[in-house]
Amino acid sequence: MVEKEISQAVISRLPRYFRYLGELKDEGIERVSSQELSDIMQVTASQIRQDLNNFGGFGQQGYGYNVEFLYEEIGKILGLDRKHNLIIIGAGNLGQALVNYVDFERRGFLFKGVFDINPALYGKKIRGIEVQCMEHMNQFVRDNNIDIAVLTVPKTEAAEIAERLISYGIKGIWNFAHVDLKVPEGIQVENVHLSDSLMKLSYNISRFQKDM
């Protein structure tokens, strides 16, 4: 059976559904309608229904969605029903901040190792994880079943490091380097450009001020 192709626009909304449903669950709310979700998320009710219908729907007309069930099902779709072992390459300020962000662990993303090219950082501990030299990375990836690598390195180094990681068996790269990585088919990359988000915010501020 050929798996249905899901658009990236739909996939990009799934984490928001998961986050808002988690908040509703924590508040003790058992059921929610697509219209109620629409009011919370600022996404149309019809869009919500279309998105969820890609995965089976999960709701009943006039009955809405069971919050806990939908939360768990979207978690499974996102692959959050299993643990993901991560390493970080780049132990600078951003890398340290990511390791220290404990909410990742609650979602099943477990930082196992931190690597850097700077000898002055070797042995430093970040939340109990010791910074290691890059030469140890290959064996560490294989010994610890690492499936995701996080790059917080200069863009001039990112492509070469990504190639090494792929040769070690890494299947997913979360890339904070200021360059879009090109990788072989089957390797998943999420390029994160923090400045893009800031420039989008700047644009929206400027547009709002012009409209006043």
Keywords:
seven-stranded mixed β-sheet; 9 helices; Arc Repressor Mutant, subunit A; 2 domains; Rossmann fold; alpha/beta; about 210 residues; two-stranded antiparallel ribbon; globular
What's the arrangement of secondary structure elements?
Layout: H1 8-26, E1 31-32, H2 34-41, H3 45-53, E2 65-66, H4 67-77, E3 84-89, H5 93-100, H6 103-106, E4 109-116, E5 125-126, E6 129-133, H7 137-143, E7 148-151, H8 155-168, E8 172-175, E9 188-191, H9 194-211
Parallel strand pairs: 3-4, 3-7, 4-6, 7-8, 8-9
Antiparallel strand pairs: 1-2, 5-6
Helix pairs in contact: 1-4, 2-3
In short:
This protein has 212 residues and is of the alpha/beta class.
